[in-house]
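Bug report (template v2)

What were you trying to do?
Predict the complex of my protein with cytidine-5'-diphosphate.

What happened?
Run completed; filing so the output is reviewed.

Input:
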Amino acid sequence: MEAPRIGLGYDCHRLEVGGDCYIGGVLFDSELAPVGHSDADVLLHAICDAILGAAGLDDLGTVFKDNDEQWSDCSSSVFVEYCMKQITEKHLCLASLDCVVICDNPKISPMRSAIRQCLSELTGLQMDRINVKGKTTEGGDAMVITAQAVTLLVQSEL
Ligand code: CDP
Ligand code: ZN
């Protein structure tokens, strides 16, 4: 049995007034929204990099180039599906996922359960092995949102 693999992911986007605000695959009712090439879902991007990192694969930006028109405005759930396919091919599966989103607004806690459910549907991991929490910037840049994710990958049962 190979040893479990830990992966760390980080992402950052600027926030602007207006536009759709997707965080963890969930649409928030928010004045501010992250801006980026795809739907700019900072949490899904951090999760993808955690999964790819644990599996020893190229990071998200290398695979899905931000100058590729194909990914303009696309849903970041496509990226998660790609990552899950990659690890399945390597006979790995997710065993744990923990995340933090850092921004002053929107507030994450009212949407925690919806995000955990969405992440469970996207990854196939049970909800009690997925966690998400929000933190403020404590006087930092209110127009920036960052996310960090840690994941554990284990060998799939053959
Ligand atoms: O109190 P502490 O410094 O640990 O955390 P904080 O950054 O002051 O945030 C207090 C609480 O607000 C957090 O524990 C979250 O439950 C909530 N929060 C949130 O839901 N969404 C954010 N964007 C920021 C904070
Ligand atoms: Zn991103």
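What did the reviewer find?
The beta strands are 5-17, 21-23, 26-28, 32-35, 92-102, 130-135, 144-155. Helices lie at 42-54, 60-63, 77-89, 112-123.
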